[in-house]
Every structure is written in structure tokens, then in C-alpha cells.
Amino acid sequence: MQISSDEEDTVCPDKVTVASALSACAALGAIDQGKWVHSYLERSGMECDMVIRTALVDMYGKCGCVERAYQVFKEMPNKDVLAWTAMISVLALHGNGNEAFELFKEMEAVGVRPNAVTFVGLLSACAHSGLVEKGRWCFDMMRHVHCIEPQVQHYACMIDILGRAGLFNEAEELIRTMPMKPDVFVWGALLGACQLHGNVKLGEKVARYLIDLEPDNHAFYIILCDLYAKSGRFDDQKRVRSLMKDQDIRKSVPGSSMIEVDGVVHEFSVKGSPEMLMEALQSVLLLLSNEMKIERNIGSVIR
């Protein structure tokens, strides 16, 4: 079964298929295909339940169309906690922390109770927007007002908030007092903060914890190398590089990039086909060239 523009030749998809297609578009950042699925829903007259509407919000948000996501959200009747959480997460993703909190206040005002995932979204919004005090308030409120015990994801977000602000002593103290064992996401948030602020001493310690947890994860070695390089410790950087080589630690999957041209998502990597790469780049350059000509012509007419 597939959803395509040749609707006459395909089996009509059900709601589960449509929701899955929207999730795939969100994961790929395929906005043109996502818009097409939305258009298909409107043309087909399929009833859009809360699951599909929430998937639309998520898709538009992850594809960078925050206003479109908000439009879909506002048109939802009887929004449930999943819908509110999805929109809060979209705002968090794009660094709109204050807007996320305003939406949270609206949610509480209409009597919808937040869940644990809602607070992950709010804390993430604080991290991406540098809202340290609101992050502390949110972390405290979820326990004492909503009786939701923080899980490891909430602690990871809180460490991210404190670490980005350079509050390393407070971040370390929070890790020490966690009621559960810190996982790779908690330590990873702290390591990312060490890289951001150039805290080599703490970064070394955190990297060792992470390498013990996931000894084959190349990312931790790379960040440690970056810390050494930025602090001028090139011998230590060389030592870590040699260790990676001796233990054959490298990316299991080559890094790749994706671009969307004329509604088609192209993926290419360093080891990919040069012909495919050039074809994709030429398409983008042609598209940009045409757009520039149009803008230039419009400017000439205005003048």
C-alpha cells in the first residue's frame, strides 16, 4: 500500500497509515510530502482524529513550519494532553521557550493536566532558550504541584539547562543527588556543556564515564579530541586519536545529509555516489538561480 499522487491506482489508506506517513515525513524533514499528505486528508474527506491532527503538528514542527503547526493546533477541537504537549515540544525545538510556557499556562487554564512528557518539552524549551530560573521552577513544580516524580529524561534536561549556563557545580551536585543512576543522556548533556564552555578538566572526567558506558561510541572520543585541540593539548588529542585507531573505533554508519528538491528528498554521504551528489547540487543551484532571476526581475519592475 502506498500514498501517491496516482490516487486512482492505490488502495485508500486508513488513519494508521496516514499517521505513519506523517511521522516518516517528520523524521526525514520532507515538508513537501508532508503537505501533500495534509492535502490528501482534506481532499479525501477522511475524518481527522486527535492522533492525525497531533501528527500534523509534529510533522510541521519538525520540518520547521512553526506557524503552520500552530495553525493546525489552534483548529483542533477538544485538545488532549498529547496535542498540547506536541505543540509545546515544537516551540521548544525552535528555541521559543517563553511561548512554550505561555502555552502551558493556557493548557492549565482549560483544565488539561500535564504529564511527564509535557515537562520534558518544557525543560527542553528552557535549555534551548537559556531560561535557567524557569527551568528550576518547572523541575520543582512537576514534583510538588503535579506530583510527577522526575525521571532520567527530566534530569538530563535539567543538566543541559545548567550546563549550557556554565553552572557546572550545580549540575554535578544534581547528578550526585539523582535517585537513579545517571545514564548516557545525562552524562552526554554535561559533556556537551563542557565542550561549549571549554571545560577540559570536567570534560575529561565525564568522557571517561561515557566511554565506560558505551566504549564503542565514537562521538565521545571526538568531543574529547575537540576539547584537547581547543585548549592546545595536541599531544593528548593525538593520544586519543591513536586509541581510536588501535581499537578500531569509528562511525558504524557514514554521516549523511539530506536535501529536498522539487518534492524529492535526496540523501548523500561522503562515501556516496559523486554522480548523485553532483546531480542533487546542480538541481539546487538551478533552483536558486531561477529564484534569483525572479527576484531581480521583480526589483526591476518596482524601480
TrEMBL record:
What keywords tag this UniProt record?
Repeat
InterPro entries found in the cross-reference section: E_motif, PPR_At4g14850-like_plant, PPR_rpt, TPR-like_helical_dom_sf
Q: Which Gene3D superfamilies match?
A: Tetratricopeptide repeat domain
PPR repeat copies, ranges: 49-79, 80-114
Quick check: keyword rRNA-binding in the entry? no
The record's GO molecular-function terms, alphabetically, read: RNA binding
- Biological process terms in GO annotation: RNA modification
Report the Pfam families cross-referenced here: E_motif, PPR, PPR_2
State the superkingdom.
Answer: Eukaryota
Q: What protein name applies here? A: Pentatricopeptide repeat-containing protein
